[in-house]
Amino acid sequence: MRKYLIVVEKTSTGFSAYSPDLEGCVSTGRTLEETEQNMREAIELHLEGMRLEGLPVPEPHTYSSYVEVSA
Could you give the 3-state DSSP secondary structure of residue 65? Predict the structure, then answer.
């Protein structure tokens, strides 16, 4: 089991998401929950496609953190 970071952004029609560890792996949804589920499925399909093409499956290497700044 691997954990891939996803970045979710609000859009004018819902949400979009991508994984910095998996180039080209993106998804969208109307709600945050739908977007996260769609992204989970997109990652599974993306990795399956990589395996079928004989490509190495990348190890997760990104992380997230918040920093405080005075605004």
Answer: coil
What string of H, E and C letters represents the secondary structure of 2-61?
Answer: CCCCCEEEECCCCEEEECCCCCCCEEEECCHHHHHHHHHHHHHHHHHHHHHCCCCCCCCC
pLDDT averaged over every residue in the chain: 97
Which CATH number is associated with domain 7-52? 3.30.160.250
Per domain, the residue ranges of the chain are 7-52
Assess contact for 48 and 57: CB atoms under 8 A. no
C-alpha pair distances (Å), 24 with each of 18, 43, 69: 8, 10, 31
- C-alpha closest to that of 28 among 17, 41, 43: 17
pTM of the model: 0.90
